[in-house]
């Protein structure tokens, strides 16, 4: 199972690029968790490159080690703690070395981190990265430093992220930060604060710059992109106090999507994550209208049972979700969906679980990201509900949803066989260096033999002749016509 869009193999991977020659200090920066963290790390690298730090892939040569952490499930936190313990020897050997924790775990644990982990010198929450230069002055002076203040308006809009470790073809562009939804199981509203949207002009600017630098695909990123709302103010919750002028000129997600689609007409555009409660059909209409908006939506549902959806505070029913999917399929016939699912949430019965399985069959998702419920301290579910589904039952149900998703994925992938797909080449296949790896509009991975003249970043027609559970097997279509002629 993988974290969303971030390959399991990339979890905890340190990224580096050549930066400013005048910089003399070395930063080793590792990211865990969701795309937002990987994207934030690019902002951190950008801020620190102005402070004399270049990134490195070798932890031994680092002056500063930063872990951008995830709190979403207990296991994510355990991974980070294990990683921290591995730095112990390094720190003994190099007393000047500073070790810092960024992101959601920093925000959740705050000063506790400094108390619990003697090794950590620096704790910085997701809205405080601009303060890093000051905080590093403290640690340079031998003192611990912390800033975990959450902001109502920080979007890092003016910071041009340093693109770390990517393929030079696909990039993330953050459009919102935080989340106001308060799903009862979720720690994100506590670790990432109030929802706020980024100025559309700075988004468009970043997309244009990416296009000019050779990027071919962007993913607009937010915890809940459908809730995007720009009115010149800060937090979304304060929109009610906006002026009439601000209200009448406000930009919502579908409009932003259109602005981006027009600004970079050859760029492939994706977005993540969508929320069924906030998603409106005008987003699907934009997908149908603009060729360059990919026909794929990641639409987490978490459960197929109304009883569970209510306890999770998802603010929609099973039927409302299915209705949204039906409308989407009517507007964009070749649309593909993926899901997030939580099994074994508080009080989940066998009947609830069966409803999850039946919903999955009804939607026929292309992919899924499935998790056993992990109680997070401080969340409404932790405070008010009992985590009462035994671990073995959670694991069995998880195995069942994963097995079903496997069948559905295989079925969906086989539906792509026999047709020509536009594939954006992202790199060399991991399994075979003679093959390219890319994705179609529906986000299905496709591999095919390399031919001279093709390069990373090309979009080429590929005839799909077979599939595995998660991959399309193809042949560059130009070769087929050559062969036929
Ligand atoms: N809107 C966010 C969701 C973040 S959390 C986004 O941008 O993706 C990602 C997924 O983790 C959720 O959709 C949910 O399926 C899962 N998740 C969140 N909290 C969880 C918990 N306490 N236990 C298990 N899975 C959880
Ligand atoms: Fe979490 Fe629900 Fe927001 S899953 S990120 S509280 S939409």
What is this structure, in a nutshell?
The chain has 485 residues and is an alpha/beta fold.
Keywords:
3 domains, 17 helices, single chain, Rossmann fold, alpha/beta, OB fold (Dihydrolipoamide Acetyltransferase, E2P), binds FE3-S4 cluster, pyruvate-formate lyase- activating enzyme, 5-stranded mixed beta barrel, binds S-adenosyl-L-homocysteine, globular
CATH architectural grouping of the largest domain? Alpha-Beta Horseshoe
Beta content comes to 15-25%
Average pLDDT number = 93
Placed side by side, the strands forming the largest sheet appear as 2-1-3-4-5-6
CATH topology heading of the largest domain: pyruvate-formate lyase- activating enzyme
Bound molecules: S-adenosyl-L-homocysteine, FE3-S4 cluster
The count of β-strands is 21
Structural class by secondary-structure content: alpha/beta
Helix tally equals: 17
Radius of gyration: 23 Å
CATH level-four homologous superfamily name of the largest domain: tm_1862 like domain
**Overall structural domain count:** 3
Q: Sheet bearing the most strands, described?
A: 6 strands, parallel
What CATH first level of the largest domain would be assigned? Answer: Alpha Beta
Query: What distance separates the N and C termini?
Result: 44 Å
As residue ranges, the low-confidence spans are 1-5
> What is the global morphology?
globular
Fold and architecture overview:
There is one protein chain. This protein has about 475 residues and is of the alpha/beta class. It has 17 helices and 21 strands. The protein has helices at about 35-50, 75-85, 90-95, 105-110, 110-115, 130-140, 190, 200-210, 245-250, 255-265, 280-290, 305-310, 320-330, 350-365, 380-385, 390-415, 475-485, and strands at about 25-30, 55, 65-70, 100-105, 120-125, 145, 170-175, 175, 195, 215-220, 230, 250, 270, 295-300, 335-345, 365-370, 420-430, 435-440, 445-450, 460-465, 470-475. Strands 2-1-3-4-5-6 form a six-stranded parallel β-sheet, with helices on both faces. The protein has a five-stranded mixed barrel with strand order 17-18-19-21-20. A hairpin with a 5-residue loop joins strand 18 (about 435-440) and strand 19. Helix 8 runs parallel beside helix 10, helix 10 runs parallel beside helix 11 (about 280-290) and helix 14 (about 350-365) packs parallel to helix 16 (about 390-415). The longest helix has 25 residues, at about 390-415. The two termini are about 45 Å apart. FE3-S4 cluster (F3S) binds near residues 181 and 189.
């Amino acid at each position: 199972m993988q974290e969303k869009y971030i390959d399991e193999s990339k979890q905890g991977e340190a990224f580096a690029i050549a930066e400013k020659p005048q910089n003399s200090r070395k930063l080793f920066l590792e990211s865990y968790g969701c795309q937002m963290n990987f994207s934030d790390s690019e902002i951190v690298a950008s801020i620190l490159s102005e402070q004399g730090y270049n990134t490195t892939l070798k932890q031994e040569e680092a002056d500063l080690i930063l872990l951008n952490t995830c709190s979403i499930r207990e296991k994510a936190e355990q991974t980070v703690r294990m990683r921290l313990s591995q730095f112990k020897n390094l720190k003994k050997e190099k007393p000047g070395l500073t070790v810092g924790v960024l992101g959601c775990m920093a925000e959740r644990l705050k000063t506790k981190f400094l108390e619990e982990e003697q090794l950590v010198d620096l704790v910085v929450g997701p809205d405080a990265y601009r303060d890093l230069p000051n905080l590093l002055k403290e640690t340079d002076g031998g003192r611990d430093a912390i800033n975990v203040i959450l902001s109502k308006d920080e979007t890092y809009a003016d910071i041009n992220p340093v693109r770390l470790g990517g393929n030079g073809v696909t990039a993330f562009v953050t459009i919102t930060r935080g989340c106001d939804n308060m799903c009862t199981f979720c720690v994100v509203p506590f670790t990432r604060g109030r929802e706020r949207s980024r100025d559309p002009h700075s988004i468009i600017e970043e997309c244009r710059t990416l296009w000019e630098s050779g990027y071919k695909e962007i993913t607009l990123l937010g915890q809940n992109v459908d809730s995007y709302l720009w009115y010149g103010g800060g937090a979304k919750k304060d929109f009610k106090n906006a002026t009439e002028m601000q209200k009448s000129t406000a930009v919502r997600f579908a409009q932003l999507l259109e602005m981006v689609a027009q600004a970079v007409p050859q760029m492939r555009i994706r977005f993540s994550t969508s929320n069924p409660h906030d998603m409106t059909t005008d987003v699907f209409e934009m997908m149908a209208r603009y060729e360059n908006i990919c026909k794929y939506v990641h639409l987490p549902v978490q459960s197929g049972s109304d009883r569970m959806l209510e306890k999770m505070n998802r603010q929609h029913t099973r039927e409302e979700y299915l209705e949204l999917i039906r409308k989407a399929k009517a507007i964009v016939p070749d649309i593909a969906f993926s899901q997030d699912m939580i099994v074994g949430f508080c009080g989940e019965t066998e009947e609830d679980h069966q409803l999850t399985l039946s919903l999955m069959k009804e939607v026929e998702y292309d992919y899924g990201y499935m998790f056993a419920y992990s109680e997070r301290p401080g969340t409404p579910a932790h405070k008010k509900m009992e985590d009462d589904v035994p671990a073995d039952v959670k694991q069995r149900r998880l195995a069942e949803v994963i097995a079903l998703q496997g069948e559905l994925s295989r079925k969906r992938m086989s539906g792509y066989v026999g047709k020509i797909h536009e594939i954006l080449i992202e790199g060399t296949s991991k399994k075979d260096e003679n093959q390219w790896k890319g994705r179609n509009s529906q986000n299905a991975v496709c591999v095919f033999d390399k031919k001279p003249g093709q390069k990373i970043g090309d979009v080429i027609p590929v005839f799909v002749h077979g599939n595995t559970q998660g991959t399309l097997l193809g042949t560059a279509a130009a070769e087929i016509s050559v062969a036929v002629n």
